[in-house]
Design brief:
This protein has one domain: Nuclear Transport Factor 2, Chain: A (Roll). It is 23% helix and 49% strand. A six-stranded mixed beta sheet has the order 2-1-6-5-4-3, covered by helices on one side. A hairpin with a 2-residue loop joins strand 5 and strand 6. The chain starts with 6 loop residues before the first helix and ends with a strand.
Length: 116
Amino acid sequence: MGKSFDFTSFKRAFEARDAANWASFFADDAEWIEYRHHSPPRAPNVMRGKDVIGTFIERVCSQPLSLKIEDEIITDERAAYRVIVELGEDKRIIEHVMIYFADGKIAREVDVEAWD
């Protein structure tokens, strides 16, 4: 059996917008798929590799926004949760996320986003 995923520490890094710590939870060969208004199901945004994902996380964390995880459901193989992104000026992004684990790291993340 592989290492377990530390969701509590992941959530803390995510909500604190600690880019380096947040990125450390991803496997080197992780994949992140996003379905959003400009990345629909026929052409989702796909990021592959920890370096690419880390660059994206740094960009997110550099923005004036707040991040919150709620309603999480966690198993040994995966977790599901809702993300609330507060952008200011009464604008938000709501995401439903599934993350899949391998050896205590995120191997795959899939997000579906709705934007104001």
